[in-house]
What does this fold into?
Amino acid sequence: MLVKTDNLHEALLDNLYGAVFLSDLDLTILYANSAAESLFQMTRSKLCTLTIFDLLEDQIGFKKTLGELVDSGTPHTRRHEKINSKITGKSSKIDCSFTPIDVGETKRLLIEMHPIDHFVRINREHALLSAHDTSKSLVRGLAHEIKNPLGGIRGAAQLLDQEIVQHGMDEESRELTKIITTETDRLKDLVDRLLEPHHTLKFEKLNIHEVTEHVTSLLEAETHGNFQFTRDYDPSIPELNGDKSQLIQAVLNVSRNALQALHEADIQQPKITVRTRVQRNYTISDNRYRFVCRVDVIDNGPGITPDMTEQIFFPLVSERSGGTGLGLTIAQTAVTRHKGTIECSSEPGDTIFSIYLPLGE
It folds into this structure.
């Protein structure tokens, strides 16, 4: 049963960071605020069909806590409790406090949940962005230094090729100049890709599914039906302000990274899922947004090692043989310029890259 609140209390509760529940003594949920909806990724009305037991893994421990709480009538806190991953789709931990309160003549429980992973994520994000900015500046400086002599090398190779033709030298000598020219062009392309994300963005109102459909359709055409692509879209996501070309590039780079990982691992039934959701009360860097759009690219590949997960967005870092280590860096840069972020969680058979984009300021 959903308990209603007045407008002022509703506004106050919905702007709290922590998830707040009101339940009866059997832990049947009577009320949940917006942070609770965000934490468990379901609507308030849906939460009010469940009990607190349904949301947490250690049901036996909570039943014991409930008994002690009812007997003593004093607040109680449980730390580092695991959320039921069957509900949220991922493993996370919370600190949970229970406070007995009187609502009229009826005994109720006020339950507060604070996700521990959130603070760990923000600290990691700060460290990652700082390291990313430092390495990006270093790489950009290096790219400029490399780009200048490349033109001279290519020009010299062309002049040498002309000399070879004029003097009637053998074709093998011309092949060597072609190699120099080809490799110079390849390096120039690499340098241009390092510098490209700093072009001015062209913001417009767009539907995120225009981006995901463009990318998914492109990859379906490339793979000729050898990979399974699944779409799991939330059609209620409102339009956002963004540079369509840059967002396509970001989602494409992340998706192609998943595609290449599946191909190299020779997965028998390779599958990529593109999922979109609205996330409530989400913090990116130092800014908290009431709503953000989340785009998940999920693959069933071998996963990414924990050490690599921490540095996978750095320039020139790649687990793949022959990889340039630029795809995810360019994606992160494009998303960061939209005031968003990219996160990665991985275990064998389930790697998720999540792109977060603010929906309004």
Observations:
- The chain is about 45% helix and 25% strand.
